[in-house]
């Protein structure tokens, strides 16, 4: 399962942080690293600070957008030191996040997204996520280095993996119910937007109605079959439009 946990670093400024993050990943058995528009990569500093984890560096993917990094993921969790106004579900701690996300790994990759060293992820980037993660720290000095944050996440994932090795029953996700990936969820939300717009429901552009609906479905965690049923409902409502 560890190979399905994806670490996504967005616009990393210091190449050494990429290498240190790769090292943090390899020590805990993670290998899927994706870089979104790094300032400088490949770079000797990244290789040097990888300290033996050069296979993670060599095998990483470099993409142009966050969407490219997460399109095949079944869950996307944005790490942020500060809570945002967006109504996304938030994990307050890495251990509960790993516990909640672990069953999804049977259906596809789960992405952990980390932002820039100085100011993290933008609101727009958080908007691409299904969940947020806040790593508790000293309120007087809660500043984690990028690779330190990656190490904490990787460690909790490795702990969960180790426990699973002695408990085969915990390996199953919801029986027979695969989770949709991010692309399938995006198609659903586009369909929902069209249907609600056609019905005249979205008549207050500043009400953040769609953001609340997105958060509702993120909490509900519909399976692919349930999502297909919902889209069937939307199709039926569109066909029955009296106009």
TrEMBL record:
Record flagged with keyword Methyltransferase: yes
Primary location: cytoplasm
Classification via InterPro entries: Alpha/beta_knot_MTases, RNA_MeTrfase_TrmJ/LasT, SpoU_MeTrfase, tRNA_m1G_MTases_N
Keyword Membrane (UniProt): no
Ranges in a coiled coil: none
EC nos: 2.1.1.200
Subcellular location: Cytoplasm
Superkingdom of origin: Bacteria
Domain tRNA/rRNA methyltransferase SpoU type, chain residue ranges per copy: 5-155
SUPFAM superfamilies: alpha/beta knot
Keywords: Cytoplasm, Methyltransferase, S-adenosyl-L-methionine, Transferase, tRNA processing
Bilayer-spanning residue ranges: none
Catalysed reaction equations from the record: cytidine(32) in tRNA + S-adenosyl-L-methionine = 2'-O-methylcytidine(32) in tRNA + S-adenosyl-L-homocysteine + H(+); uridine(32) in tRNA + S-adenosyl-L-methionine = 2'-O-methyluridine(32) in tRNA + S-adenosyl-L-homocysteine + H(+)
Main function: Catalyzes the formation of 2'O-methylated cytidine (Cm32) or 2'O-methylated uridine (Um32) at position 32 in tRNA.
Protein family per UniProt: Belongs to the class IV-like SAM-binding methyltransferase superfamily. RNA methyltransferase TrmH family.
Subunit-structure text: Homodimer.
Name of the protein this chain belongs to: tRNA (cytidine/uridine-2'-O-)-methyltransferase TrmJ
Species: Salinicola rhizosphaerae
Lineage: Bacteria, Pseudomonadati, Pseudomonadota, Gammaproteobacteria, Oceanospirillales
